TrEMBL record:
<feature type="domain" description="GST C-terminal">
    <location>
        <begin position="90"/>
        <end position="213"/>
    </location>
</feature>
<dbReference type="InterPro" id="IPR010987">
    <property type="entry name" value="Glutathione-S-Trfase_C-like"/>
</dbReference>
<dbReference type="InterPro" id="IPR040079">
    <property type="entry name" value="Glutathione_S-Trfase"/>
</dbReference>
<dbReference type="Pfam" id="PF02798">
    <property type="entry name" value="GST_N"/>
</dbReference>
<feature type="domain" description="GST N-terminal">
    <location>
        <begin position="8"/>
        <end position="87"/>
    </location>
</feature>
<dbReference type="InterPro" id="IPR036249">
    <property type="entry name" value="Thioredoxin-like_sf"/>
</dbReference>
<dbReference type="InterPro" id="IPR004045">
    <property type="entry name" value="Glutathione_S-Trfase_N"/>
</dbReference>
<protein>
    <submittedName>
        <fullName>Glutathione S-transferase family protein</fullName>
    </submittedName>
</protein>
<dbReference type="InterPro" id="IPR036282">
    <property type="entry name" value="Glutathione-S-Trfase_C_sf"/>
</dbReference>
Amino acid sequence: MIPTITAFERSPDRGQGLARDMRVRWAFEEVGQPYNVRLVSFAEMKQPAHRALQPFGQIPTYEEGDLALFETGSIVLHIAERHAGLLPDDPNGRARAITWMFAAASTVEPPILELQTLKFGEGDKPWFEARLPLVQGRIRAYLRDLAARLGDADWLDGAFSAGDLMMVHVLLRVRPSGILDEFATLSAYCDRARARPAYQRAFAAQLALATGA
Ligand SMILES: N[C@@H](CCC(=O)N[C@@H](CSCc1ccc([N+](=O)[O-])cc1)C(=O)NCC(=O)O)C(=O)O
């Protein structure tokens, strides 16, 4: 059965691949699993029918038969557990790759989301000027640690994994701020990932939607 995911009918990122359906598209492409996409408007996302799939009224969701999932990390893990290509076979390597998925979503991503919230939602707030450097500093600290851990390796732990997929997509979210380019190791890491044919296919698919191709 071919799974169906949901994505923005009109992505606010205008096809830059920053919305989180990109992670799921990329995972499907890495394992060679065809998928369908159901586009939802902002209004539809907040309706009961969509909230039955995603209680917070967001995308993406994943449906396959009588299974419905939300949360990109969980969806990517679900795909990775059922197809080769995103998690190593050895149990310890698998556990470490999943650790990197959590590190991306639970450690590195939160301050990056804070920066987005500040910049795109709190520019007029009295705390903006004082808080911006604090949040930028927190992001830089995590990126410094991540760059040190990655060193001159291609991927975070041996072969490319779902941990790299999640981490790279988190890092690409902060690329427009310019902070990623302060870390040559991480910028090269993301470029390596973006050069992957699976990433390119996933990116082209979401871009086609944004440009109405
Ligand atoms: N933790 C959840 C978060 C899901 C989420 O944040 N979804 C966003 C889209 S991806 C986040 C996103 C949005 C826009 C851009 N952009 O660049 O324009 C990038 C990423 C959403 O539906 N937002 C609508 C809403 O909350 O009402 C997950 O990982 O699935």
